[in-house]
Design brief:
Structural class: alpha+beta
Helix content: 25-40%
Number of strands: 9
Strand content: 25-35%
Shape: elongated
Number of helices: 6
Radius of gyration: 20 Å
Order of helices and strands: EHHEEEEHHHEEHEE
Largest sheet: 5 strands, mixed
């Protein structure tokens, strides 16, 4: 079951890194905890335009999100939004700032984690199954992926060249032969079966 609505496209993650000091999980908190201002949506494409305030940057941003899937498509500075979409009234800006200044997000995170019985900082663990020098099957955790970036679902992790290169890099670090690996496991919750990839 997905516990969070907001998750991020690769494009959105790049723009967030370039344009703001906020982390993706902080932006997801602002949206999912009802602290962003809905300034309207694109009728044809069903994209919601959220206005948020960043204390870290001391400025505002617009978040463009798919209304139905929760996928955050991009983050825009206010001047970009005015040129590409529509202008927003001063009252909305004031409310966006007030929502952040008057609310304790950490308390809302705690309420959320209690409600769904999960940790808000949870990761997706990437593990391998391989044969050691004695030809015995072993399991090893290679690295973690931030679950928030994949909407708390291991099946949202793309198995692309970047992922495979990351696997191979860690195999070299741990001096494990690639040929000895017979499966990759993406594990999110202890009581749920992992996503298994033949390798």
């Amino acid at each position: 079951m997905r516990h969070r609505f907001s998750y991020f496209s690769n494009h959105a993650l790049q723009r967030i890194k370039q344009r703001t000091l906020l982390e993706p999980n902080e932006i997801a908190d602002i949206i999912d905890f009802g602290l962003a201002i809905n300034t309207g949506k694109e009728i044809i494409f069903e994209k919601t335009h959220w206005l948020i305030y960043s204390i870290k940057d001391e400025c505002y941003f617009f978040i463009i999100q798919d209304k139905f899937t929760g996928l955050v498509i991009t983050l825009l500075p206010t001047q970009y939004h005015d040129n590409l979409a529509w202008s927003v009234d001063n009252e909305s800006f004031a409310q966006a700032k007030s929502n952040i200044e008057q609310n304790d997000i950490s308390e809302k995170q705690l309420e959320f984690s209690k409600q769904f019985n999960i940790e808000t900082t949870q990761n997706i663990k990437v593990k391998i199954r391989y044969l050691d020098l004695n030809n015995e099957a072993k399991t090893k955790t290679l690295f973690n992926l931030p679950a928030i970036e994949y909407n708390y679902d291991s099946y949202n992790v793309p198995i692309d060249n970047s992922f495979k290169n990351n696997i191979n890099q860690h195999l070299r670090t741990y001096e494990i032969k690639e040929s000895s690996v017979f499966a990759v496991l993406l594990s999110y919750k202890k009581n749920d079966p992992p996503r298994i990839l033949t390798w």
